[in-house]
Amino acid sequence: MAIASPDPAFHVGRIDRRRDLGRRGEEAVAEWYARAGYEVLGRNWRCRDGEIDLVVVDPGGVLVFCEVKTRSSTAFGAPLDAVTAIKQKRLRRLAARWLSQVPSRGATMRPVRFDVAGVMEDHSGALLIEIVDDAF
Q: How far is the CA of 109 from the CAs of 48, 51, 62, 64, 106, in angstroms?
């Protein structure tokens, strides 16, 4: 017995909504950092090995690489739980590549830390942000 595949437009709509939610989450976190006095140096920096969501400098001069995870529910776990040891290792490699490739106003001489931002969309569509400084 053949099973009819779901309407492709349904999947496209879900993917677009998920991408839009992810973009909204990253934008909200970037705004949070800017309001807290951080300088945003980069957003969605990509290379062949992956992507860094945010690169910021804190008010004390520490270079921060931030991984942002946004969710509309906890059905598949909390956003912060999605940053596994494998993802942490990849982000460290990406940060090293960023430091070697981006003219970053002396960033190689700055202390570095890795933050993780968890963003949840509540029932009204508002975004709730939790940032873990120096997460790993």
A: 25, 22, 10, 13, 6
